[in-house]
Amino acid sequence: MNLVELLVENLTHLNKTISVMESCTGGGFANSITNVPGASEVFNFSAVTYSNEFKIKMGVDKNIIDKYSVYSMETANEMSKNISLFADADYGIGITGKLNRVDKNNLYGEDNKVYISIYDKDHNKFYNHTIIVDKTTRQENKKSIINLIITRLLEIL
Questions:
Q1: Which three-class secondary structure string do you get for the chain?
Q2: What is the CATH classification number for the domain harbouring 143?
Q3: Is the pTM of this model over 0.90?
């Protein structure tokens, strides 16, 4: 059994659900979960919010983005909490950061740094993680981020 299968099994056993608001991973985390049979029992909802506009439409406070930038832990926390509340999920995951490129629409924030927030609704608690992505391709970087999230979720559970 691989780690994502173990995550789905653990969530199922604990009767817990997850939802995700992804930016730089472009739906990769949601895809990894939904590749596992039985994921529908634990996976409520996913939103890929590449633009600031759609992060805001999904509940991220514009003032947080303006003050801290879209590439910040504060924005990742807004993403994780709002997706958890929107989807009524026990855990919300927010992912934002830059992968291998400069964003002309958001010049602030460190290149190749990704902010991950896991929100535990039952305890109103955030688990925050940052990762510096240093792989050659976006696909490799996404895989590193997704593996970190799965590992952290397994530790939290």
A1: CCHHHHHHHHHHHHCCCEEEEECCCCCHHHHHHHCCCCHHHCEEEEEECCCHHHHHHCCCCHHHHHHHCCCCHHHHHHHHHHHHHHHCCCEEEEEEECCCCCCCCCCCCCCCEEEEEEEEHHHCEEEEEEEECCCCCHHHHHHHHHHHHHHHHHHHC
A2: 3.90.950.20
A3: yes
Structure token pair of residue 72: 């910040």
Write out pLDDT tens, residues 129-142: 999 988 788 888 88
**Residue ranges making up the domain that contains 134:** 3-156
Counted domains in the chain: 1
Express each pLDDT in 103-116 by its tens digit.
555 555 666 799 99
